[in-house]
Amino acid sequence: MKNLLTATAAIGLLAGSACAEDIKIGVLLGFTGPIESMAPAMGAGAELAIAEVSGKLLGGSTVTAVRGDSTCIDSSAATAAAERLITSDGVKGIVGAACSGVTGAVLQNVARPNGMVMISPSATSPALSEAEDDGLFFRTAPSDARQGVVMADLLLGSGVKEVALTYTNNDYGKGLATSFENAFTDMGGTVTISAAHEDDKADYSAEVGALAAAGGELLVVAGYADRGGAGIVRSALDLGAYDRFHFPDGMVSSATTDNFGTEIDGSTGQLPGTDSPGAEKYAEFVGDKFDATAIFSAESYDAAALILLAMQAAGSSDPQVYKDKIMDVVNAPGEPIYPGELAKALDILAAGGDIDYVGATAAEFIGGGESAGNYRVVEVKDGEFATIGYR
Q: Under CATH, to which class is 144-273+375-390 assigned?
């Protein structure tokens, strides 16, 4: 349970507010690599929250975003980018990283040694739930331990009892494939084959041939829309192996529908998302600046917002101090806070009150800083992803 700030903490907050700072927040996302088509809206979401509080946080501190490229697949590049954000740019928190493997590397090799808070909007591997993090790592996207169960339930609920499964050969793909296969078989379904694929191959005919030989009513593609997942789908269509697919979050991108259009009509998928009032408010707040429904954009806004609100609650931009306030500001009790209301939240916190940050994603953290998680269900209709429900 939350408690009101003690008199000592309140005095510290007032003292901190007298010394406005120039606070920098790192935005470490896959601006190149297998999710590069998703990154622009993700970066825009995080930077929208940062701009919303600049000049209002901690007694008038300015807040600016500094971008870093995690590449999503190159751990060395991701850790180097994170090191630059901390040592050269002096960031006080990091929104990111974007993909599970590089996120784990940044957490262990950079964030922990430097005592830096990270809130990832899109690293979903179940393995991250068990990672040693010194209380520094959180995520606004739900774990794939949940996505696998949701996906299995969706498919069986639609009458699909037998599927082939291919997954990208990394932490994200392996974790999601295992979660899904276990859930699907436990619920009575059959996975005819579960096969890894590598990204950036010129020819996926051998992989698709093995998948087709195993059979299945459709092909589940746990890959990336800008890399191997797209190659698998293209080969499956060209060879006539499959014409219906199910796409987890890494494939639910405009890149997928831009590439395949009506060729994949009837295919389905899911991605983190909610029909909560916060989602509607986020869309209104974004307006025509960018696509508010783009995957992980709302999660990025919420990740940045939580870092900033925790700073205000702690009266400090020091990650070692404000990390302990993140669970407080994201969960009840307190005044519900939605997108566009960060200034209101700052005022409540400055006065020693409590907030319950609902945000754009109905944010709620469970043990270990994990998002409880909600999903938007989509179907490809007339060559576009259309929302057909929520879970």
A: alpha beta
